[in-house]
Amino acid sequence: MPNQPTGFQHGITLQQAQTIVATALAEGRRLELAPLTVVVLDATGQLKAVLKEDGCSLMRPAIAHGKAYGAMGLGFGGRELARRAQAMPGFMNAFSDLAGGSAVPVPGGVLVRAPDGSILGAVGVSGDASDKDELAAVAGIQAAGLTADTGDTA
């Protein structure tokens, strides 16, 4: 069709997002984690993909979204956000308020970076302990050929 909008770049492709969610869920099964929800946001912070395993509780999609959204909001992985929440609770409370309560500053929110370091989006996983959720997110991002930024330098 002529006259279709063109030129929009949203970072993570649909194929990459599908790889991320499928691999993150498979990693959750491999690690025998509780049922997981995986959310992928693109570079504009918009929802690109979401999958919720059978057995997930009611708020898991919102929590997974909040982990990814918080990472996108400040440009740090969830581990750095958690450190900042401890060190600067007033600022992080204000940040959460500005984000409409949609920022969850804990591990499991992982930035997705291109080889040049630019941010392509973020992944949020919720369902098990935050550290375990993060393992699933990282596996998904790496399977898509991208770089996971958890907020740790190591």
From TrEMBL:
Domain of life of the source: Bacteria
InterPro entries referenced in this protein's UniProt entry, alphabetically: GlcG_carb_metab_protein, PduO/GlcC-like, PduO/GlcC-like_sf
Protein name: Heme-binding protein
